[in-house]
Amino acid sequence: MINKIYFDGPEFSQISFPDVGSPLGEQLVKFHDNVMFVVVFITILVGWLMVSAFLNKSYYKYLTHGTLIEIIWTIIPAVILVGIAFPSLQLLYCLDEVTDPFITIKAVGHQWYWSYEYSDIEEGTIEFDSYMVNSGDLNMGDMRLLEVDNRVILPVNSEVRVIITGADVIHSFAVPSLGVKADAIPGRLNQVRFLAKRTGVYYGQCSEICGSDHSFMPIVMEVVPMKDFIKWVIDQKEEL
């Protein structure tokens, strides 16, 4: 059997979303595709009406000062907007809903790096800073401007909650492959939740212009099997 190759990081000349690894991420991509289908259809229809009106002067009179046509182009857009609003609101509520998570992580944005805290680990708290790896220190296969010295290690198929804040200015915590994005605002706590359904390395970046080195504070989350996650936690405790 051939294993599927997932693209969790950016690719050269990429114009589409990366392969998502969470149920909420799949719902976001599905909603985007459905809305884009409607947008393309409306664009083609309106473009055809405009070109027809320019080329055929007698056709133009049917598009102005007509009660029927005005009713049509008022009701149809309203129905389309309502049809988009309901799944959009449903998805927003799903993104905000936080059930009892398996693990909670606190992510703090700094100029210009991220720090993480595993505070609900028994017998101690795991804390570390995560800096971008310079281009000259990259290993074979590492992604330039996206690799970090300390990755966030998470278990697969487990509910994860991330508490996000900023230490100095406004940052933004975004991991597209997991469908995660939230502002890191000083003095305020935001939260996101996700469930990574497969192992792998998921890349993200700060999505808020936070200063001169804004583009040099990446986010890397490595999702591993539960036994590997427990081993990592034990190793981190021994280093405390």
Structure description:
With about 240 residues, the protein is of the alpha+beta class. The protein is about 35% helix and about 25% strand. Strands 3-2-1-5-8 form a 5-stranded mixed β-sheet. The chain has a 5-stranded mixed β-sheet with strand order 4-10-9-6-7, with helices on one face. The chain is elongated, with a radius of gyration of 23 Å.
Question: End-to-end span in angstroms?
Answer: 43 Å
The number of E-state strands comes to 10
**Count of separate DSSP helical elements:** 4
Secondary structural class:
alpha+beta
Strand ordering within the main sheet: 3-2-1-5-8
Q: What would you report as the Rg, rounded to the nearest angstrom?
A: 23 Å
Short description:
By secondary structure, this protein is an alpha+beta fold.
What descriptive keywords fit this protein?
elongated, five-stranded mixed beta sheet, 240 residues, alpha+beta, 34% helix, single chain, 10 strands
Helix-strand layout with pairing:
Blueprint: H1 23-55, H2 57-60, H3 67-96, E1 103-110, E2 113-118, E3 126-130, E4 152-155, E5 159-166, E6 171-175, E7 180-184, E8 190-195, E9 200-206, E10 218-224, H4 226-239
Helix pairs in contact: 1-3
